[in-house]
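Marked as duplicate of an earlier ticket. Keeping the data here for the record.
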Amino acid sequence: MNRSIPQPPPPTGDSPPPRAPAARAAAGLRGALRRTAALALAAVLAAGTAAAPASAEDLPFRDPDLSVDERVADLLGRLTRDEKIAMLHQYQPAIPRLDIGAFRTGSEALHGVAWLGEATVFPQSVGLGATWDTGLVERVGGATGTEMRGFHAQDPAAHGLNVWAPVADPLRDPRWGRNEEGYSEDPALVGAMTDAYTGGLSGDDDFYLKTAPTVKHFAGYNIEERRDRVSVTVPPRALHEYVYPAFRPAIESGNATGVMAAYNKLNGRPAHVSPLLEDVRSWSEDETMIVSDAYGPSNVAGSQDYYDDHAQSHAAMLKAGIDSYTDQDADPSLTVDAVTSALEQGLITEDHVDAAVGRSLSIRFRLGEFAPDARNPYSGIGPEAIDTPEHRELAREAATEQMTLLKNDGALPLDAEQDGDVAVVGPLADTLYEDWYSGTMPYEATPAGGIADRLGGDGSVTAAEGADRIRLTTPEGGAITASSAADGGALRVQDSGESADAQGISVFEWGEGVVTLRTEANGKTVGLGEGNRLFNDQEQPNGWFVQQLFRFEEVGDGQVVLKYDGYDEWNQKYVSVGADGALTVDADTRDQAARFEKETLADGADQAVEEASGADAAVVVVGNMPFINARETDDREDIALPKAQRELVRAVTEANPNTVVVLESSYPQAMPWAQENAPALLWTSHAGQETGNALASVLYGDANPAGRLPQTWYRSAEDLPAMNDYDVIDSGHTYQYFEGDPLYAFGHGLSYTDFEYGKPELDRKRIGADGTVTVRVPVTNTGERGGDEVVQLYTSQKRSRVQQPAKELRDFERVHVEAGETAAVELEIDAADLAFWDVTSGSMVVERAKHDVLVGSSSADIRRTARIKVDGERIPPRDLSDDIRAADFDRYSPGAELVDETKAQGDAVEGAEGDWIAFDDSDLRGLSSFTARTARSQDGAAGLEVRVGSPEGRLLGTAEVPATGGVYAYTETTTELKRTGGRHRDVYLVFTGDLRLSGFSLTTG
């Protein structure tokens, strides 16, 4: 009964040894150079009348024995200009005259196939990251790819095999609304997991693809508020050391076939027109298809206001490397009109169109679309491959492996004989939630259900949600009354003498003041429906706009008003009562809203305590609902566990000393009281259909937990930087740079057994810049049961020209060790992985240095150490007499930002009065003049001071910068400098007004 709202498609971003790229190159995937020769061949084939084929089936592009380049070129030569332009849109139309069917990019497959019906639902990506098991993640990707093939067989045009997954954005900030979609804050772990998952999705054939994975969202994406307008500053070091390592492995190995451009601006330029997209292409010998995000193309000339019209913006996107435009749902008119206009204006040539279409066609060829079924190993996969017993078993294995034991004072594992009567309480005790990119679960094993099934007839399970049940009455004597029909009805104010069942409303608090309401009349959730009235007709919060969210606001005299808090245009309105008694969202102010008095019919915490106090053990299941407070378009304001849940945890823990707190959440949550006082804490992501069974197996010791946290858990939001501060080096965040005391460290996770680490053996202790060190470490299970240990290897560089991470993950292995046994774990350090981006040379550099080798069970639990020497480069003092790019600074003030030098390429630094950028260890001998290349649109005084030692240090000179009439209009300004009085100094350029600086030099004379 929800009212019909025109909704845009959801704006999605929305290991094993890799297959050798050379194998695919032999199959003909070369790129632009061979494409040129193949185009000439195609022209000959198309022109030769004597060799004209008898039917479309005999055309050269359908010959699987030709190279892909030859086949693509032949097909391009047969397409009209209009047909090729139409192929730039997400919904590529059929071409009947060539017997070519329709093709659609973009099926969602983040942790299982989404949005197409019942399918196996695996743990959220952050949960898969917590497994630290690339082999498992590859198998999950493989099962997902197989099920995608099954759906494709049902409807090839609608269920496309180009899948938009996984998300490779590092989880820089746990407040990010899409935290659940990423694997880890560490780029190496992200890169390994992304490579593994795409390897499963793409399959194991050297040429044909099971599906064509597209990694998202490139690049610098980690914020939802004004995500299409915000510009994030990503300096060169952060780009090359933090962003690229997350995306590159899957592209480089050939497992991923493309990337999706991000919504945000990157250094002032929309990611959809970023020249960095070509960097992605350089990582692979295969053709790489780059797709836009949903409605991203419209944004460039729309909300981002970067170009004057769509013709200009679409031309720029095509030149930057966008091959497929996801825009306006299935309506291609904006894309077609914009590209056609760009061609007619001479902004692009048909060669640009051919290049983009050719790349998407190459993917279609590899998916087997134009080959006989007998040649494609995946063509026989049908609907029977969806939700198989094997996939259910894999879902349970994955859900179990990601369970992460945070604390255990001996409460776990539970004993089925002694702990047979269990109270499972909390808002997530007997329900499972899907997230926006989940599939539809074919069945649900809830925590309470899983525990009950585990105990069988040997125990009893009672469940209580811990939610208050209230009645809302009006000053006039009425009460909100709900329909008892299964499909619900409009909520109305009626005589308060009605039964409590008809008027009972359970209130679930999810933090930040947001609540959901469930009517006890039919057990359905209340949401906004037809005519802006409230209906009790939803199983759970859902949809793009999430129209089931409310807030209570106190207005005095013990009364409250009800405010609608959904994500649509009616947000911020209040509930009123119409003449017919129906509750309607139409009041603009509190004064216009209906007033209610809250009467508590049942105290949720008291009910939970009553159940827990009489049980052998209590399991409190708290966490988040993935559609609320943190999801696409909505970042978290805080990281604390919601107040009502904190109070519930405290009350139950105090009532039953044998309490286990289970946090089922999409992200880290701060809960210091529980860490101090609860006997045991266990974290799980929303782990899909098998969550409850996996949880029960861990709680009762059938499985030994071995999940490890893939990101730092901070104690409060005060430990975090501003959301738009992407540069983790400068802000001091993630485990690599954070100097505070986290609640739980990166890599943390406990076991029911103990592991002892022996002395690591290194096959060499000194290597060159291209060398490798093999580290062998014995790991002994000293406990009484078998279990998995995740052995983590970090390094820490002792001296460097630049600030280095405190430690950085280099390798890891999840290994099973039986009780009393020892496993020989072999890990590797490649010297190339020790490189950092040297801003003085504009390249990755392995520095000559000593490195501590740290082996342990988390980033904070290092068991053994060793040391290696790396014979790398010595970075000389910086030579500022060259043309120095301003963006290649070493350090910068909080107000300085990277911006676009031109719309097409290059970065500049934008600053205001008092901002500065620093260039460390600079050789100043003999330098006596300063030349700056600047731009500024405002009149008035502005300039650049050259100082040494600090932003307030000795002033060498000031360059007065004139207004140039625009931020892209640059001019050079030169000024004389005083003698430096030193040799190697840190140089600071201090802004004295608003301006942009693209480059500078210090020269003699």
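See parent ticket for discussion. The domain at 475-594 is CATH 2.80.10.50 (Trefoil (Acidic Fibroblast Growth Factor, subunit A)).
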